[in-house]
Amino acid sequence: MALRFVKSAALAAAMTLGLAAGAVAAEGEIHIPDTKYSFDGPFGTYDRGELQRGFQIYKDVCAACHSMNLLSYRNLQDIGLSADEVTAVAAGVQIPDGPNDNGEMFERPGRPSDRFRHPFANTAAARAANNGALPPDLSVITKARVGGADYIHALLTGYEEPPAGMTVMEGMHYNKYFPGHQIAMAPPLSQEGQVTYADGTKATVDQMARDVSAFLTWAAEPELETRRAMGVRVLIFLAILGGLAYAVKRKTWANVH
Q1: pTM for the predicted model, two decimal places
Q2: Residue 185 marked as a ligand binder
């Protein structure tokens, strides 16, 4: 009986996915707009101000539902925060710990060495708080989604009223850039001025989406600048080596006819 139920559930899931895929195919491929970032191209670098604003968006908006299990608070020094600022950010959250001498679990202020605090005790609690949907971890989300930062920016700015004749299921929201166009996450960036940036930048929805997309790109690939700098040095070395090899070849075979 249990096996029959599992097979039936799997068949129903497959049919649902097939119908969704067919609907997307029928509507045509979704075009993700190309958003220009400072880290684009082979010589691009991160804008530290943009990364700090993006972290503010994650902390004030996204962290209520989404974890970043691969990031520690001390990593924030890489986006330009001072050691004291990182310590203050970490101390502003309560980290589950224990057991203590009495065998009890407890919470304590965070330390720079702690991983980012998970918003829920477990996946069941996360689903219960989000109508059955499990918010994905954002540590490498720009690597896990085709389009990377462009996709995240498009998703965050793609909420709008559904087109005429389309029925959105209960608990879902229309998003023109999400596959199938129905997403369980409500618009996280809903209005201008939702946050107040410390550097005075105007917090439009587009700006907030750009900033948090850049921050999530850095989180997924913090070594990008180092890797690109190493690549440039390697290319320069190979160019010099190639020139020397050519000069030695010319010298060696100069008298050979």
Answers
A1: 0.82
A2: yes
